[in-house]
Design a protein that fits this description.
The chain is mostly beta strands and 127 residues long. It has helices at residues 89-93, 116-119; strands at 37-39, 44-50, 54-62, 64-68, 74-78, 81-84, 96-97, 102-105, 108-112, 123-126. The protein has one domain (34-126): Structural Genomics Hypothetical 15.5 Kd Protein In mrcA-pckA Intergenic Region, Chain A, CATH 3.10.290.70. 7% of the residues lie in helices and 38% in strands. The protein is elongated and about 60 Å long.
Amino acid sequence: MENYHGASGSTIKGTGGKRGHRTDKKLRFVGGTFTATKVGKADSKRLRHARGNMYKIKLKTAHFINVLSKDGKMQKVELRTVLETKDNRHHARQNIVTKGAIVDTHLGKVKVTNRVGQDGVVNGKLI
């Protein structure tokens, strides 16, 4: 189930004052489910409908990463494993790639710079 992260439904503030009028929750405010992109043997993608007659490419398993090196060149290299993630330590144990995760490649450690579940590719820069 998707979550809606909005203001609480209470009309009373913590100070005892009343909150102003606000609109109800709308279906368009609800986010999508977590994609949980894992490191795998090959890249596998899924198309999902988005608002405005658009599609989002969701990456289910990732095998390659586009790495920006120190001299400004891009290389497509193979992912080995997820070393650490800042948002959830269990994602590193399960090899789930998210934005900000540090992954291991044959070039060295790479920090993921894009939202993998919404872009369809994995981009990162060498650290």
